Description:
The chain is an alpha+beta fold. The protein is built from 17 helices and eight strands. The longest helix has 22 residues, at 331-352. One iron/sulfur cluster (SF4) is lined by residues 181-183, 216, 220-223, 277-280. One iron/sulfur cluster (SF4) binds at residues 227-229, 231-232, 238, 243-245, 271, 273-274.
Amino acid sequence: MSTEEVYNINLCSEAFITFIKGRCESMINLYSEDENAIALKIADYAVSLGFEKCGIISVDAMKGYADKIEERIERFPETEKMLRSFTRFADLRKEFPWAESVVVCSRRVGVYRVPDNLNGVIGKHYLMDARRDRAAEGYHANAALEKYMAKDLQMQVASSHDSGITACRWAAMSAGIGVIRKNNFFYGDHGSYYAITAFLVDRKIEHIYVPTHRPCPDNCNLCIKNCPTGSLAEPYAMRAFTCASFLTNKCQDEAMFENFGSKLGLMLYGCDVCQDVCPFNKGKWLGDRDFPGLDELAANMTPEKIIAMDDEYLRNVISPKFWYIQPDDVWMWKRNAMNAIRNNLSNLKLNKD
Length: 353
Ligand code: SF4
Ligand code: SF4
């Protein structure tokens, strides 16, 4: 998941799928046998590491992302400053002049069991975040794929698993390993619960899948209708600063938080509503495996315990796991916890009345 995913900058259209299909058909003669063999080796190795799919596109394929950013700024001008910072993801050669291709891989996170007390309280993706977690399989898979490309295939490679080296969802959609739906999330073969990771490499290679995913039905608006803050204003368009994910893990404007506090229910960090209500996610969260260390952590993640937590524990244990709230900002956990308790009391009162 890259930073752009936190803000749900997504940027899809059905026309894009048609473009990808055409690209798949036309790519056949563009790459030599050698290049195709290398691309296949990378994709196969990625799958052997537990990634579901691995696609490879030219860095030039990322240029279209800049136009989508402009469209989004026009729609939501208040987000201009933040969105402009993502244009670096479109023009990758500016920072990495040697880069030729983007390798992008999807990994299911919906295989892990969600502790009961955290369902609907902390975004499920965040619970299974492997980017900095050395105990997690995903962490080692990212490192192993990078090492394979750098050492075995002798490529120059760059990655940034924390904030993303590029716009991962756009890259994944461009490589045909899934689609973006009206709720702005990436969907692979098993719904939207995926981690996506990307690498830049210095070889001109390509591995693009023909998309097989059905688009959202025209008459479905469940994600929009159920968005608790009204942030998902229309298909493929979301007001970043009022999304519950932003409010709970980035927003330091207390007036804005207060405006939306009552809509956040029991949420402490992130929101899954627009994914959980989606028919394409029905039955897709398997939850039959344990994510390392999650049960132990979950026992401490009640609002009451968070309010009583000392700063050292918040900084040293909670922050490394849920790192969108930085160590200096751990007060936000207490704010979110107090808000959840307040909302819970209001619910209890309503039910009593
Ligand atoms: S449902 Fe939640 S995650 Fe989705 S846009 Fe609305 S507030 Fe954000
Ligand atoms: S809820 Fe409906 S409109 Fe929203 S992403 Fe899912 S299928 Fe598409």
